[in-house]
Each structure stands twice: as structure tokens, then as C-alpha cells.
Amino acid sequence: MTNHAVAAKWYRKAAEQGHAIAQYNLGRMYEKGWHWLVFLDRYDYKETDYVEAAKWYRMAAEQGNADAQNRLGLMYSDGLGVPEDHAEAVKWYRMAAERGDAIAQYNLGEKYRKGQGVPQDEIMALKWYHMAGDQGQVDAKNMLKKYNKFEENLKKATLGDAKAQYDLGYMYDHGDGVVAENHDEAMKWYLKATAQGEVRTQYQFGFNYNYGHGVPQNIIEALKWYRLDIIAADERRK
After folding, report:
1. H helical segments located in the chain
2. CA 62 to the chain's CA centroid
3. 112-150 pLDDT, tens per residue?
4. What is the 8-class DSSP label of residue 81?
5. CA distance 172 to 164
6. Computed from CA positions of residues 59, 65, 70, 73, in that sequence, does the dihedral angle turn out positive or negative?
7. Which residue ranges form the domains of the chain, and what is each CATH number?
8. 53 and 81 in contact (C-beta within 8 Å)?
9. Which among 137, 133, 129 is positioned nearest to 111, based on CA atoms?
10. pLDDT digits (tens, 9 = 90+) for 36-87
């Protein structure tokens, strides 16, 4: 019998007796598909069972297991084994986050940033990112870096820095995590940067005119900006 199969066997025994950690671990095995190894004793066949996973996560979560609370929140967020319900996801994320679970704190921050299950609230998002980041949670730390970069670009761009204006436009153009995708706002900052000689905007203008992002679609105008971008690139290579 494989190690996974042995583990599943004993997790089930403990889980059925109400042991929260075993319930969580059994839920993970159902989520990952490892539960089949109990019967098949092999590594090359896996099938997930999200309904069963959610059942065991709920049992552990209701006993206060933060890992299970976070996983159950994820199941509700993604509609795995339960109906998709962002408000319910927030409920379980919050329980785990308040117990100090760094991943749940990050996940709760994401819900506030996106306005899923709660009103969109940047201040609350940052609060939970900071709490998770202080524990070393990598995704939260990366989000905080993006926020800092956005604030830095906004400050410099407002003061007339062409590079920052381009970078800010690019963040709006691509919805770079911190800000929602906003092509109109992107084009506004690209125009400011272009007026100061920032040539990297030329390709972005071409792309946005080509696809009608923030401006009416205009293939002729797109080709004009693409050509200017090529000329500028040739000049840089000389």
C-alpha cells in the first residue's frame, strides 16, 4: 500500500471520530484525488471529488481549523463542490484571517480589491495585504509592491515625468493588479508622455487604435503609429 493510501486510511479513521486536522487532511486528499489510492494502491490514477472535499473542510472549519476555513472559502470562491458564492467565501476567509492565517488574509484582501462578496474597498484590501505580508506571504508582498509602484508612478506622472506617465498608462492599459483595466485613462497618460517625447507610447497607440481600446478603431491610424514605432526602434539600433 502506498504512503498516500496509508495516510488516507488513518485520516479517515480520525476524521470520522471528529479530529479537525484529520478532517482537513482528508479534505485535501479528496481535493487532490489521492483518496483513490486507498482502493487502487497506485500513483497513476487520480480523480478529484470536490463535493467530498468541501464536506470534510466544512467539518474541520466549523471546529475552528483555519486551514480548512481558508480552503472552504476557496471552494466557494471558485464554485468547487459547492455553489459559487463570494459572500460565503468572504465569511470563511475572514474567520481564518482573524485567526492569523496569512493565505486567508491575502485572499480576503483580494476580495476587497475586486469587490467580490464585499463592497470594493482599497483601504481594507491594503490592511489585509499588510497583515499577510508581515507574515511573509509572497503574493501579498507582491501586491504591496504593485501598490507602491502605482503610487510612485502617479506622483511622478502628475509632476510631469514622461517615463512615469508611460508606466502609469501601461498599468491602466493592462489592469496591472492594482488598478482596473481602463483604456481611456491609459490613453490620457500616453498622450501626456508622447507630448514630452516618450517614444514607447507609439506601439501602444498603434495597438489601441488597431483594437479600439480607449479610442475608436482606426486601422489607418494604427498603421501610422506602428510605422513610427518601427522608425524609432531603427534609430535606437544605430
Report:
1. 3-16, 20-32, 37-40, 50-61, 66-78, 86-98, 102-114, 122-133, 138-158, 162-174, 183-195, 201-211, 219-237
2. 26
3. 999 999 999 999 999 999 999 999 999 999 999 999 999
4. S
5. 12
6. positive
7. 3-137 (1.25.40.10), 144-237 (1.25.40.10)
8. yes
9. 129
10. 554 444 444 457 889 999 999 999 999 999 999 999 999 999 999 999 999 9
